[in-house]
Amino acid sequence: MTVSCARVIEAVEAFCPPDLALERDPTGLQVGAPGREVRRVLCTLDLTLEVAEEAKARGCDMIVAHHAVVFRPLEALRTDTPRGRLLAALLRDDVCVYVPHTALDVAPGGGNDALARVVGLADPRPLEGTRERPQVLVLARRASDTDAQERASFGAGALTVEHTGDLSWSVVPAARGQDVAAREALLTGQRAHVVPLASPGERFGIGRVGDLEPARTTRALAAHLRDALGAPAVRVAARDPDRVVRRAAVLVGDGRRYVQAAHRAGADALVTGDVDHHTALEALALGVDLIDVGHWAGERCVIDLLADGLRTQLAGEPVEVLASRVSTQPFTYL
Question: How far apart are CA 51 and CA 91, in angstroms?
């Protein structure tokens, strides 16, 4: 017994909805075919040749990689280049590759929320809005207890159903409205109604910002993050490292473009990775302390987020989900 690559994709997209990915972000199925039979899935941050070899050694038919293996359109597929050798190995071993990337960064409970927890943000909100998803009201006959149990397990996450008299109703993303209505009709034997809502829908965004609890100095926060994230070192750009940080912003991965957003949000500090010289100077001029934990340390949490999410979505199905053991940290600090 196996599941298909398409079923694994469905499971990933249940907690990493593809419509949340940033515009022009290379996401989706990048290698392989949806009909491929899958017995084992390997989750990783980066897909390197070493990770591809790990997948083969551990008997994996599919890799879910946070970062894209195909970043931009290929002009050639030459096997005397690192990228060509990697793609050739994946094709030779018939390993499918799916990439969620910023869909996981934006999604509630994703990479940015994970980093916000480590930093210690209370009630974090998106640093910069990226999408508003319209919602609909689904009206149906009130379900029996058995129906309610089946209904609660339908779709991505639990579906909250409220009751008014003999009617049950739920508010869901517009894109799911017809599917939920069809499920309601199947459960009750009666037609369910989908009503568009004029009120603002769910709002999503990249990064997180919130009050730091407990407040601490930039120096203390940097030390805490170095230890908590397993970073070999962190870089700090601050006029006074002993200034107390009361409000902070986080951006997993490369957050260089979000210094202005952190400043507008009233953040005393921005925790991110891949900070360059000019970004640090800009932050200093704005009065925003920068803590660069590195791309790898800030995002390696996504390996477990992907693996745990897939295990939850695929529970009881004949597929094993593994977390990569290969470190893709490229830097050595001397």
Answer: 14
Measured distance CA(292)–CA(274) in Å, rounded: 7
Contact between 301 and 115 under an 8 Å Cβ cutoff? The reply is yes
**pLDDT for residue 237 is more than 60:** yes
Q: Provide the sign of the torsion angle of the four alpha carbons 137, 140, 144, 148, taken in this order.
A: negative
With contact defined as beta carbons under 8 Å apart, do 172 and 192 qualify? no
Question: Cβ-count burial of 56 within 10 angstroms (0-12 exposed, 13-18 middle, 19+ buried)?
Answer: middle
Residues 6+ apart with CB under 8 A from 197: 134, 135, 136, 137, 171
User: Hey, which residues does 210 pair with through a beta bridge?
Assistant: 248
pTM to 2 decimal places: 0.85
Domains of the chain: 3-105+300-323 (3.40.1390.30), 108-130+206-293 (3.40.1390.30), 135-200 (3.30.70)
Q: Identify the bridge partners of residue 273 per DSSP, sorted by sequence position.
A: 254
Give the pLDDT confidence of 261-284 residue by residue, as tens digits. 999 999 999 999 999 999 999 999
- Which of left, alpha, beta for 266 (phi over 0: left; psi -120 to 50: alpha)? left
Whether the pLDDT of residue 149 is over 50: the answer is no
Place of tokens 């909100």: 125
69-88 pLDDT, tens digit each:
998 888 899 999 999 999 99
